[in-house]
């Protein structure tokens, strides 16, 4: 479900060499959508 007027960018891309960086970026990405999103994961 999209928020009215919202703009969701693409999530960070996971490669074989950047897991730690990707993990922190993915957490931030999910929290930026809605603080409850991260709790659902």
Automatic annotation (TrEMBL):
Q: Which domain of life is it from?
A: Eukaryota
What is the protein named?
Gag-pol polyprotein
* Originating species: Trifolium medium
